[in-house]
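Data card: per-record layout.
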Amino acid sequence: MNGKLRVGIIGAGWWAAHTHAPALKATGDVEIVAACRRSPVPLAEFARLVGVPQTFTDHEEMLDKVELDAVIVCSPHSLHVTHVRSALERGLPVLTDKPLSIRVDEGEALIALAEQKRVPLAVFFGHCYDSAHRYVARAIREGRLGRLLDVSQTGYANPNALGFFGNAEFKPNPEEFPIVPTQFRADAELGGGGYLQDVGNHLLSGMLIGTGLRVAEVTALMDAPERDLRATVAFRFTNGALGTLSVFGDARPPFDNYFGAGRFAYTGDLGAFWRDGGSPHLRFQKWREEPMDIGADDLPPATNPDENFIRTLQGRAELIAPASEAIECVRAASAAYESARSGRKVILRAVEK
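The structure for this 353-residue chain is written out next.
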């Protein structure tokens, strides 16, 4: 593709203004030419702050009337399928916020449609685009840890205290939230679940995208499976390794702005990688040797989902989180909710012998 790519945004809210728009503009190769949101007043504010010439309250109308090269989908979780499908049907490449879908069959249908139309379909996550996670994923594929034994991801944050899940009054700081986030996460149907479906998907991406790991069995505990704020999920992977993922969305630190922290570890019979909460350093220890920091020069170059998507369309990169891998996060999350509701283990695949 030559010249600036013409991008349309479906779901012109706080996340699109706070994250997607700056990242897209920073590439220097993008024009955000249209935006869609069902509510006209915040849509007009989005257009003013971001600088978007055309706005629509109906995504089909935007896709029909505006010449686009790609679409960014930032709508509530359960609406992703509708919006992604509409763009793919018109032969447009799509970057959608996580999750790809709530239901596995719907995600698989989107992948098939993207393949039929021969256009890229990527998913916006946090962890799997992170340089440290990409380094570890490559090391796992290359066998540097030997036989993988254990994988763990933990995340703590306070969105419930800020009112994101409808359990507190939301008092936005205009500097932090110049466009007020909606509270769709307070609606289990729109959110497709709770905190595991929301931020837990980022942690799942660190486990499952680029590592080659595939989930075989899932057992989950949640405070409330329809709209969880706390969840702990245990996995058995097809290679026999075990894993845990824990997320807490109701942490209450003594301050009012957004707080988030977490840690991860990947352990094998030859050594381990880990990063502790609050530390920027990825650490590695080969057994019987001293732990060491992995230097920034050794890590893959920094990128973000928007930049990676645009560079892929330009033929200058490959998708880090294609839908064909992101569907593994959908499978894992769906199985976790099924397990939490039933109180039973959910089996997805056989374990390799």
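Known properties of this structure: The chain has two domains: 5-124, 127-302+320-347. The domain at 127-302+320-347 is CATH 3.30.360.10 (Dihydrodipicolinate Reductase; domain 2).

See the next section for split statistics.
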